[in-house]
Design a protein that fits this description.
With about 375 residues, the protein is α+β, with helices and mostly antiparallel strands. Helix content is about 25%, strand content about 20%. The chain has helices spanning about 10-20, 25-30, 65-80, 95-105, 110-115, 170-200, 205-210, 285-290, 345-350, and strands spanning about 60, 85, 125-130, 150-155, 215-220, 235, 245-250, 255-260, 265-270, 280, 300, 310-320, 325, 345. The longest helix has 29 residues, at about 170-200.
Length: about 375
């Protein structure tokens, strides 16, 4: 992938060459690349460290507190910013560390080994790839070429009774299966109930009525980069789910966009790793179900290091595929009318194609016409 600017290369040919290597971004690092190939030069890169002088602090909720204390804390966090840490959550440190180590081990397998798993479409429940961030559909100019994140992903889709990952190497199978099992149990038995109660609805509302499941698990690997400021690990977006449970290693790089309130604007704020904590992100579908009570926060990942790789695991919780998504009826009143029309998950996911880089704008097209 020769050339140092986008004007000096054929993006289509470069993309084909990159995918043909079947070794991902990790393969570029292994090859000794000293400059960032044009295919990865990111527009609107995230701000460098420090991110600014902010007084905003991501809330931390200790789940060992009495329920009477945790429910209002969850409500306040989901309503004001849509992201918070949880501690004393019941997912052991060993389980988290083993899963993160398994993800790292997979992505750092020898190229000849891991290339056998690399593809552009899922094989069964597994997809190991480098996602392309296509330009928005309305961008039809010659400069509208895809931008690749400085990140490789092992995506595991889940359908009852559980993910079929038998084709993956033994080094990662059991730790990832155990992590998914424990986090799915935590999400359904504890977190789903807390988020429901914090809305003022029945504790089982999300889990049973909405048929909530831990639908997918994204195991991201962000290699070290020779020019971190010129790339992006993940473009500005909101998650298209109910909520996300995120584990991250000690490297960090996640940043979120916090609204400026009455002053408008806003700023990007670090979400630094907190030992023993999981990050909870309320997502677009939960924003809709809550009738805009809960927020869905824009976030991105910046690559920080020329030496260290970053690993994270996101477990995404979704309602049942057959259900219509709309504000919960008990949250719709004369004072708080219905904010969104009904839609299916398939319709929503289709609507988001080509929308990366537009953040929370993706949900606005479903806003109720009467609002």
């Amino acid at each position: 992938m020769a050339g140092s600017t986008r004007d000096e290369y054929d993006a289509t040919a470069a993309l084909a060459e990159f995918y043909a290597s079947r070794t991902g971004v990790r393969g570029l690092v292994e090859s000794g690349v000293a400059t960032v190939p044009p295919l990865f030069l990111a527009p609107n890169s995230p701000p460098p460290t420090p991110l600014g002088n902010t007084s905003f602090v991501i809330p931390t909720i200790d789940l060992s507190l009495p329920r009477s204390a945790t429910v209002p804390l969850v409500h306040a966090a989901a309503r004001t910013c849509g992201i918070f840490y949880v501690t004393n959550h019941g997912v052991s440190a060993d389980t988290i560390d083993s899963a993160l180590s398994a993800v790292r081990a997979f992505h750092e397998l020898p190229p000849a080994v891991r290339s056998a798993f690399y593809s552009l479409a899922p094989v069964g429940d597994v997809l190991y790839t480098t996602y392309r961030n296509d330009p928005p559909r309305q961008a039809a100019t010659p400069d509208a070429v895809p931008v690749l994140p400085w990140r490789d992903t092992l995506l595991i889709s889940v359908a009852p009774p559980g993910p079929d990952i038998g084709r993956l190497p033994a080094v990662c199978r059991e730790p990832l299966l155990e992590y998914h099992r424990v986090v799915a149990d935590f999400g359904k038995k504890k977190l789903g109930a807390l988020l429901s109660e914090a809305l003022g609805v029945e504790a089982e509302r999300l889990v049973k009525t909405m048929q909530m499941e831990a639908a997918a698990m994204s195991c991201h690997y962000y290699p070290p980069c020779p020019e971190p400021a010129r790339v992006i690990g993940g473009m500005d977006h909101t998650d298209p789910y109910l909520f996300t449970v995120l584990a991250q290693d000690s490297v960090g790089g996640l940043v979120v966009h916090v609204d400026g309130g009455d002053d408008g604007g806003g700023e990007w704020v670090d979400v630094p790793p907190v030992p023993g904590a999981l990050v909870i992100n309320s997502a677009e579908v939960l924003k809709v179900l809550s009738n805009d009570v809960y927020k869905s926060i824009d976030h991105r990942v910046r690559v920080k290091s020329t030496q260290d790789s970053r690993v994270s695991i996101g477990v995404f919780f979704n309602p049942g595929d057959s259900l219509l998504i709309e504000p919960l009826p008990e949250l719709v009143t004369l004072e708080t009318p219905k904010r969104y029309r009904s839609f299916t998950m398939a319709e929503f996911m289709e609507s988001r194609k080509g929308k990366f880089g537009n953040g929370s704008l993706s949900i606005n097209q479903f806003a109720h016409t009467c609002v």
